[in-house]
Amino acid sequence: MKKILTNILKTTYGGVLAVLMSVSATYAQTLSDTALMDSVQRQTFRYFWDFAEPHSGLARERYHPTGNYPMNDAHVVTTGGSGFGFMAILVGIERGYISRKQGYERLVKMVSFLEKADRYHGAWSHWIDGNTGKTVPFGKKDDGGDLVETAFMVEGMLCVRQYFKNGNPAEQKLSQRIDALWKEIEWNWYTQGKETLYWHWSPNYNWQMNFALEGYNEVLVTYILAASSPKFSIKPSVYHQGWARNGGIVSDKKKYGIPLILKHNYAEEYGGPLFWAHYSFVGLDPRKLKDKYADYWQLNVNHTKINYQYCVENPLHFKGYGKDCWGLTSSYSLNKDGSTGYDGHKPFYTDKGVISPTAALSSIPYTPKESLSAMRFFYKNKSWLWGNAGFYDAFSIHHNNWVTPQYLAIDQGPIICMIENYRTGFLWNLFMSCPEIKAGLKKLGFKNG
Question: DSSP label at 213?
């Protein structure tokens, strides 16, 4: 160490940076897998704890470490990302990052805010003003209930309910308040009386967005929750005729010899962006989960392996792609003019040479060896990929080591939660312990044992 410090003092700034990168890489190589996962989880947890929206306690849609919010949205919270935030706080309690009392108090703050926030037939909007609880339009006609974002929120809230249901009287009261919010969501109303669920309803534009939830993407848990609702449950036919398209959801396609199993919307050959294997399955346990359409564990393993193999093959010849640097999903991205944008990265068709750390890291239950290799590679490069809330959202070695030094809740949340599911099954066990979920799965014809 003395020799390293002496060398640092003798170098220029550029040399200092090079030495620090070398030290960081060496340190990353000596970390055990357990220590590496601990470090990533702890730092990522800060997104939902230290950098949450202060008034509501919910997860900001995005976090800029510089404090510069170009869209003036520092107080805009995201419903789905906050669902992952509920789960992240539970992980924080279990891992000892915070005390049980601290976690409970933050969760009470979050639930109290949601009880007063705008709702539309029980569903929350995609974005909410963290100061007022009023809806912030996600788009011109997307200014009302968002059933999918609500599902991700409830996925997390039900984990909290289960965690505290047998606690002290105050904790039990929190569980009861969550239970009441869950039971008020009118899932069956979001069918419009038809045989499918619809994503949006607006008090100003009614059903004009008309986005039916059909075919395979990230929203399976929406149907599971809708079937599980104690008061506003959907009929099984809504799942089978709508989501599963009367069996048309099944695919016979293969890539790299790996069966796709289900038809991925708009991504039939390689599968969709990897968040499709994460969002529903942060709580919903895919292990041994089957229905007449798919084995959902194998579905997600195959989806991830195809994404990995594509990056290893690298048919578009992007610099940096390989066995240690892989993972395509929706995230911040690089526009043609060099500005930062957003894109749904998936193999070949929308591949821009941009790697999103959440893709490989959140896939760790499905591809532990490959995901840990990526985690270690990212960590070796933490001098430019790592900030105060974990790995930055996206980067590109191909485009001159471009990186966006900012974060999105929906990308950070699955990292901490899916690593925990890989390590202990903690969130899977909580969510699957809900009696309503067990009944809903059975109602739809699922087997999970």
Answer: -
Per-residue pLDDT band at 20 (split at 50, 70, 90): very low
| pLDDT at 23 exceeding the cut of 80 | no
Hey, what's the torsion of the CAs at 183, 188, 192, 193, to 10 degrees? Answer: -150
Say whether both 245 and 215 belong to one domain. Answer: yes
Do 390 and 415 meet the contact criterion of CB atoms below 8 Å apart? yes
Strands (E), 335-387: 340-344, 386-387
pLDDT of residue 30: 83
DSSP string, 81-143: HHHHHHHHHHHHHHHTSS-HHHHHHHHHHHHHHHHHS--BTTBPPSEEETTT--EE-SSSS--
CB-count burial class (<10 Å; 0-12, 13-18, 19+) for 383: middle
CB atoms within 10 A of CB 266: 13
Distance between CA 408 and CA 59 in Å, rounded? 9
| DSSP three-state, residue 144 | coil
The pair of structure tokens assigned to 424 is: 């202990």
What is the 3-class SS of 267-300, one letter each residue? Answer: CCCCCCCHHHHCCHHHCCCCCCCECCCCEHHHHH
Asked if 326 and 362 touch (Cβ cutoff 8 Å), the reply is no
Q: Domain check: are 15 and 131 in the same one?
A: no
**How far apart are alpha carbons 378 and 391 in whole angstroms?**
8
Asked whether the beta carbons of 83 and 153 are under 8 A apart, the reply is yes
Among the listed residues 87, 120, 53, the one whose alpha carbon sits nearest the alpha carbon of residue 415: 87
Which phi and psi (to 5°) does residue 187 adopt? Answer: -60, -45
**133 dihedral zone (left: phi>0; alpha: psi -120 to 50; beta):** left
The CATH number for 196's domain is 1.50.10.140
49/97 same-domain check: yes
Question: Domain range holding 123?
Answer: 45-295+412-444
pLDDT computed for residue 26 by the predictor: 66
Residue 19 in this model has a pLDDT that exceeds 60: no
d(CA 439, CA 163): 19
Q: Is the same domain home to 11 and 89? A: no
| Residues 20 and 107 placed together within one structural domain of the fold | no
